[in-house]
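re: ur question from yesterday

yeah so i grabbed the chain u mentioned. its 336 aa long if i counted rite. heres the sequnce exactly as i have it in my notes:
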Amino acid sequence: MPRLQPVYLLAMPNALLLDIAAPAEALRIANHQQDEIRFALHYVGTQPSVATSIGLCVSPLDVLPDSVPDDAWVVVTGTVEKALPVQTFRDGMPPDIAPAPLPDAEAQAIAWLRRIVRPTHQLICICTGALLAARAGLLDALACTTHHGSCDALRTLAPGARVADNRLYVRDGNVWTSAGVTTGLDLMLTLIADATSPVCAAAVARQMVVYARRAGADPQLSPWLEGRNHLHPALHRVQDAIAAEPAHDWTLAAMADIACTSERHVTRLFREHAGVAPVDYLHRLRIALAREMLGNSQLDLEHIAQRAGFGSSRHLRRVWHKFDTLPPSRARGSAG
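ran it thru and got these structure tokens back, copy pasting raw so excuse formatting
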């Protein structure tokens, strides 16, 4: 049976709809890409229905539950000051009226976050959702970010926080914050990769036709996601196959067979769309696999080399130094 991962998504009045829909859609797709974890979404709010940034209403919402499971993800989405005015008429009736936000909705949400969020939870703030978390005192002394237009406001609300500009997202312990709008999807892809596997996250990204990006100070992308920011289906087939079995005895001919093309052309596809030669792409994933085993197992380097697809520890070391100036021994116990 798959393990359930509860996700509580807080939707406030004037919620930015993309902050809700994009991460939720990524989780939906992730549920269909693997069988180990099922993301169970719970939509919560200060009232049963709220109007979003573009006038559409989100309902039904569970009104601020008294408790959430210890392992839950709590997602706080952003809002806009001025929502798109929308009026609809049906059968000559007066226009629909969006549910009016409660006057103390923000205060209720702040009190709820302050009461609910624990170190066992993952607190995920998308866009200006970080401002609500700051008002709840949940970002004190933490590194964080938000929409570039709200960084100064975040500094005012959380003077003890280390607010980073020009970041797609920031993690500090169990607290994640992201910049504006679409970066919530970048953040969710990272969370999906951590919870399931980088291969699953890459499949979700491909399904949504979006790939993880980096801002100047962001950590390096996972090797499993690098080189996937393209739309060439044949190359994606090859990359999927390599990612599924990086230790397989991959030859250029085998890659060409999967791509249904020639060896020369598959080399051209890798260079043009992934920016690397086929062997370098393969080595990158094998080194990533070796790094994970170094961090999460007690296997000696010789066994790790064999399981990662290298002929020997000597071969592993030689390839390793193309990607890292530090020796493999420094990666022991440091995965994640």
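noticed a couple things. The domain at 3-207 is CATH 3.40.50.880 (Rossmann fold). also The chain has a mean pLDDT of 90.
anyway ttyl
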